[in-house]
Design a protein that fits this description.
Order of helices and strands: HEEEHEHEEH
CATH class: Alpha Beta
Helix content: 25-40%
Radius of gyration: 13 Å
Oligomer: single chain
CATH topology: Trna Endonuclease, Chain: A, domain 1
Strand order of the largest sheet: 1-2-3-4-5-6
Structural class: alpha/beta
Number of strands: 6
Strand content: 25-35%
Length: 131
């Protein structure tokens, strides 16, 4: 599975659930693969990876400043316990794209309580303005 398929699967499923979704959104000095506003108004960022989960964790540390929830999105596979611990310890979630294309939130992302409001507002505006 390639990263683009993961992005398309996640963005499509979130749209089907009523989220406002944007792809490749500029956020601080990075780009978010998927940025979305859920039905409660919370901002989610999903960094999609085929490999390099550790790299995704590092990328999401920046995004946590402006998003209510952050996730790593990847295809379904066995994930090492040490990797799951790193994801949980960093306050992130993990979404698997299952073989049938459905999503499985394997690790629930906690709500981020340490937001920088100006960055969150900028990201919110960018998502709302996306096609």
């Amino acid at each position: 599975m390639i990263e683009q398929v993961i992005v398309e699967s996640i963005s499509g499923a979130l749209r089907d659930e009523g989220f406002k979704v944007a792809i490749e959104v500029a956020n601080l000095y990075r780009s978010a693969d998927v940025a979305a506003i859920d039905t409660k108004g919370d901002i989610w960022i999903i960094e999609c990876k085929v490999t390099s989960i550790g790299r995704a964790i590092e990328q999401l540390k920046t995004h946590k400043i402006s998003a209510d929830k952050v996730f790593i999105g990847t295809y379904y596979r066995k994930t090492r316990d040490i990797t799951l611990k790193k994801i949980k310890d960093a306050g992130m979630g993990l979404i698997y794209v299952m073989p049938d294309g459905s999503l499985y939130e394997f690790v629930k992302a906690p709500n981020n309580t340490n937001l920088w409001k100006p960055a969150r507002e900028r990201l919110l505006k960018r998502i709302q303005e996306a096609d």
